[in-house]
Amino acid sequence: MSEDKSAVPAWEQRFRAARVSLPDWAEDAPDRALYVSNATGTYEVYAWDRATGTHRRVTDRPNGTTDAELSPDGGSVWWFDDHDGDEFGVWRRQPFAGGPDEAAVPGLEPSYSAGLALGRDGTVVVGRSTDEDGTTLHLRRPGAAEAVEIYRHEEYGGVGDLSHDGTLLAIDHTEHGDAMHSAIRVVRLLPGGAGGADVETVAELDEVTGRDEPRGVACLGFAPVEGDTRLLVAHQRTGRWEPMIWDVATGAETALPLRDEQGRELPGDVSAQWRPGAEALLVEHEYEARSELFSYALADGRLTRLDTPRGTVGGATARPDGTVEYLWSSAAEPSAVRSTTGTVVLRAPGPVPPGSIPVEDVWVDGPGGRVHALVQRPAGAGEGPFPTVFEIHGGPTHHDSDSFAAGPAAWLDHGFAVVRVNYRGSTGYGQAWTDALRERVGLIELEDIAAVREWAVTSGLADPGRLVLTGGSWGGYLTLLGIGVQPELWALGVAAVPVADYHTAYADEMEALKSLDRTLFGGTPEEVPERFTASSPLTYVERVRVPVYISAGVNDPRCPIRQIENYVERLAELGKPHEVYRYDAGHGSLVVEERIRQLRLEIDFVRRHLGGGSV
Fold this sequence. Notes:
By secondary structure, the chain is α+β, with helices and mostly antiparallel strands.
């Protein structure tokens, strides 16, 4: 018998509905593409032959798979094989049309991934990160049995891009010790080399070393033309992210004056990618939690807006035929892969999930400037005040946007208002806003959240006795920190995969996050223990006076389980009401039913404590 959809709550339908990522196509075989979908109930990698219209599931693992790349000729699929979501693994490869998996680069031990570059001639560069070795990059030449190490540094870095002819490699690195502002080194891959001397440095772009106000740079990709030495990079020289072209052979830098058809400079952050042929760029503009697309002609500097609806572009790609495909959604409308031709290119099989409620933009004066919040009110529930969920985003260098999300929609279905805050530390509001994260880690974000909470109560939106602080990852960290530092402001705390004990978290987390924490705090826990203590939720656990719910993945390398257990043990010793849910995965789950189970438990916890019974 088929499932009776009317019996399935709308919030569960949104989670169960199949969805797809933006397809990534092979450089020399554009009809061959990869995407990720949850069509079977678990997020896995799919191969799509656009010429024949056939779709094939590439991976099939209990806890799902999301990291994969196509070889430039479209002949093989590379996918990252970790253990139950711990992000520690190796690259495997299988034919595009199907067949057995094999070790893609034999001889490399498991590690955290630090990038992958696949050359058109068969050159491969694999980036690895481990606690013991820091970052290492390994080069395997066409026909070679093994890869050789070509880069090593204790600080975090990774593969940027290979040039179109496979002779140049761009490396994003943080050798200067500032994980929030990377630099770029370009090396030439030499035809041979004794003793592992297989590269020589061609160019450096470092906006951090020796500067009072560091600016980051990041690799966006080499021009897709044979022998072209132009590298598209993102930089923060003007206090925000914007693109420029850097010819690594001559050192010439070409600024890109991005002005719209009325001559106005684009506000907010701007990124770009090469269009095929390298005569134009596809520009992605992000401003105030929404995004749009432009085409930029390099010959005359003409910027032309592409027709996209108001909302958020979750990724875009320029096709060889001149069209642009993009993943789009809004808070009210589910995502789909669209084309600038006006068609839907790819939609997951099955019913489209129910829509939700549009967001309202609210700006609140905070201690560090105006804070942007996205607000949603439950439908048909009157004017308020409402029980309200403050859902805090993770990252921390990330931001909430006007995009479709099943979690907030579920809270709205249950009669809660939802508020999401782009606190200091969030991206999309300029470098100074993001870099403020380092001033008082965790505490500065809570000041902005408190300012928005005050608005929510005084405006009549939120019932002050029924305010829930919740979030995952960094949002989970801010939740636990918030109910300790601001115990009078919240009725409940619901934290998913949080940092709970910062000293222990640093000891156990993956190397990339150790690097970030050293940047945020100005050193290690041994060097600046007072800073880690001041920003650790465990420090304030005695002050917690509301019930706490925590969910955690037992294989999580980002917010490891031991430090969460330390916090939970202390809650128990103090007799604080709390509930804990542990699941067999990493930093979140790729299994749809597991995600539903987690949110059902959270909603049930909140309704039991705030009234309304169980789900």
